[in-house]
Records
---
Amino acid sequence: MKALLYGLLLLVCGSGLAIASMETYRFENAQQQARYRVIIETVRCTVCQGQTIADSNAGLAQDLRQLVYEMIIDGHSDREIYRFMVERYGEMVLYRPPLKPSTIPLWIGPFVILGVALVALVMIIRRRERLLTPKLSSDELQRASQLLEQDKK
Amino acid sequence: MSEQEDRQTTSGEQQGVSWVRWLPLGIFLLLAVFLGIGLTLNPNEVPSPLIGKPAPAFELPRLDNEQQIFSSSELHGKVWLLNVWASWCVSCREEHPVIAQLASTRLAEVIGLNYKDDSADARRWLARFGDPYLASAVDREGRVGIDWGVYAVPETFIIDKQGIVRYKHTGPVTVALLNEKLIPLLKQLQEEG
């Protein structure tokens, strides 16, 4: 069963690999390959900044993929590989910036904007409701309820 | 009295509405300011994490004689400059006279890192445009380039006598940059212990 699962994983990862990048690397196990996939999809290609090194065919992206592969085979941990990248290219190389004071606006900004938008929406709806609800005098209210009563009968 | 109150509330409400009417314009202006700031920034100017850190050491074949190894340790105790170049790089040709001018000031040892290039092409390039380098190191695989965080050739690093990277410039060095920034910095570094 386990073997079957690993086989499936390999198949899935392998097919992704064949589509996304040119090189095919031989890994010792499926776990290594999965780690490789995750890392190259979260490291920014500094030459072509909108892309990860998995997406890019720039020379540097190829070199970095090769390097990630070699580091995995040499037994480096994910953390070590990311640190290697950050030491050389800075934190902007990470697609997921770490949470720290200077990146807090980046992380919570979208939620703050969403919150403001929701509050604004509620306020607008309330105001509209208030404006659209007709103000009836007590006479008119009485007539309205009379009409409703008649309807029921 | 009650009529007056009534009028006041309606005018208050109208005021609220007119304030909201200006909101989109406000948001637009805010966005325009931010985008305007964004336009003045150069997205290729990635701050180097190497500044203030020891320069990555390397040992590579010399371009003029590939049997010989050039080691960055030879530069210990000197102010030096690493200029990453390649014969395939168009802006390197553009900055080359400026690098030559810089080398002629003798304020720093000027070292070339011949990045991912064909050595024969690189030698021809130097023969044609002049060789201002004390030595050019051959980084054919670009591994040393990765250690230095090179991502766009040309790049120029300045290293002090302690072997600490003090400055990095991405893209061609211009005469203005040379006179306004590099030469004053090199003079300062020469005076440091």
---
Amino acid sequence: MATRVPGPLTRPSEAATGPVATVDGLTRRFGERTVLDRLDLEIGRGEFIALLGRSGSGKSTLLRALAGLDSEAEGGLSVTGSVAVAFQEPRLVPWKRVHANITLGLAVPDPKEKADAALAEVGLTERAGAWPLTLSGGEAQRASLARALVREPDLLLLDEPFSALDALTRITIHQLVLQLWSVHRPAVLLVTHDVDEALLLADRVLVLDRGRIAHESDVPAPRPRHRDHPDLTSLRTTLLAALGVSPEGTT
Amino acid sequence: MSVLELDTPVRAEPHPGARIRRRRLPGKAWQRWISPLVLVLAWQIASTTGLLPTRLLAAPSTIAATAVDLVQAGTLPTAIAVSLQRVLIGFTAGAIAGVGLALVAGLSRKGENAVDPIMQMLRALPFFGLIPLFILWFGIGEAPKVLLVALAVSFPLYLNTFAGIRGVDGKLAEVARTVGLGRTQLIRHIVLPGALPQTLVGLRQSLGVAWLALIVAEQVNANAGLGYMINDAREFLRTDVIVVGLLVYSALGLLTDALVRLLERRALTWRREFLAR
């Protein structure tokens, strides 16, 4: 089993309370194809994990299992605490205004105030009354993040939420995610196929291959990180090699 | 699918938003009135000169005068009231049945297995061909007329609502699960609103066939209503009254269609603002 090394920013008190999610020998088959093969994983409280992998490596399948959206995965899976998900497409409900999307299914006494606070945090206050179809891609993804955060999750699952954004918007949303994470400290599992994104954001980077965790690296560099930080450069080479790509051929 | 069809201007009939007509024909709308007016004028001349005998088709001026007479005598308002009542009762019954069955079939596999095969079988029946059976079963009073309307209305609403429910984005259903909505809340917040656009398409179709079914039903031994007025006029070769009746039918059809459009605009604001951008 992968031994968890707390990231440099994980507070000791949180680390002491045990993992927020434990995956123990998880297997998922689609017909003949085994997508997850006896996978083990522990996600510590407040830890930011990036899950890298090629298409079809099982990244999203693992995330869906953790989100409780897959009832057919076999093996051990336990999540202590609440889970929230932000998907690749923002998946806002088009017939509910933005604030109603944020409070969807939210069982608190003051949903309106919570929504206002969450929208303020992601910088969408003035779009609270808008219909989702009128939002830009970046705005919609912010709203999706607000909908996840308003639930104050112990585990935040991000399924490639930045991949459909343009490069400039992606940079702003990266900053936003880091900022929200440092304030609320949920554990984060970010599924991505972008090595740079993983290195920029995560405490720990996992590479998934053929349904198992093939590689694991801690990212010790302090935040805010710069792409050209020497530690990151060598890590990038290692991770790309783990993904089966030679860096010279890709840049 | 049908999502974009709804707000696309298909017909140039009176529409609450003049915006659409303006966009299509900037400043030239009056030109579209020329050919219809020429046609009516030619018709009037043909009637006046005796080229078009009154026993085949009355002159437009006669038709207009007859319409005024029929309104003043109370014949037309009474006939309209009777016909409207038939459509209203038939439509309500058919809509309840159609949407109700669509909910049963759309919301569960068991329901689908129970309801859908029967509906698909019945749908294949030519329902105007059922009139002889309806007369045998229900006589020649109000019941067969109302039931024919109800039957005609229920199918478009069933098919569209069912398709609407099944067409709801599964990804939104997943969102509902991740935010902890239960089945009832899922239906209320995601499934029913998601099916609404398609249901409204069904509503428009069903209102169209409702009037059609009424016209056919009213040919059968009616003793009141627009159909009766038309049939009675045929006996006396009153082509003017027949044309007035037909015009009223189409006006009522357009009116109900306009009502549904109004309903659509109110119910689907979330989509309209997007399309208007």
